[in-house]
Amino acid sequence: MATAKQCSECAKESGPFHCTGCDKYFCWKDFKKHREQMSNIMEQVIEERNQLQETINIEIQSDIQSNSIIQQIDSWQENIITKVKQVADKARIQATELLNSKRTKINTEFTTFSQGLASLKETENYVEHELTELNEKIAQFKLDLEDTVRPAAIKVHTELSETIDWENMIYVDQEQTLAKTQQQRQYDQLEQRYNQLQEQKNQFEQQYNQLQQQYNQLQQQKNQCEKQKDQLQQQYNQLQQQKNQFEQQKDQLQQQYNQLQQKAISKLIIKFTWKKFHYLY
Length: 281
Ligand SMILES: [Zn+2]
Ligand SMILES: [Zn+2]
Description:
mainly alpha
């Protein structure tokens, strides 16, 4: 026969309900309580899970924020590229204009020269001196053309762009912001502490003034008491003197009384003696 298990909680009832988790036996009431406790823990776990979900949602939102920072960087990059393109376009136009103006000049001069040459050839109206001039002109055109295509003739200036501090042109720094916030917080705390101390100082000063006032009043009272004490001492001395005088008078009266008493006794003795004597005789 299997021994009846006792309830591990109340030990009164027989415990027919077995928990495989903790390997304990329970009565129905305590078994229900045991299950409720576990159910409560489960509720706590779920609650914590929900809080974690909120934290994760906030993290995702901050991810969105970091995305917006990336977007800011992207748009900065686009702006800079646009500006660079605009400046390069302007430089291209400047270069084209410079090159074209030289070419146009040569072209115009060359056309005039060619027309003159053709007319001279046709009329055959030339001499050595004109042939020399024509040769000189051709040599000059060759020089001009060489000058036009020579790279040094037109120079591209990029000196300023070499000095651009690209490293610091854009940068992102969270730590500095955090440090600033911390500094601000520390500063606020210090200011708060300073205000508190200032308030305490004012209170202490007020208390000090009150105590000073009280001290002055007590000092005044002390002076009055000392004056009264002196007066009382004087009165006491006078009374002491009077007492001494009274005592002296009392002693004198006592002496007088004693003398009178002695006289009276001696009179009585004489009277009595005389009576006795008279009776005998
Ligand atoms: Zn259990
Ligand atoms: Zn029980």
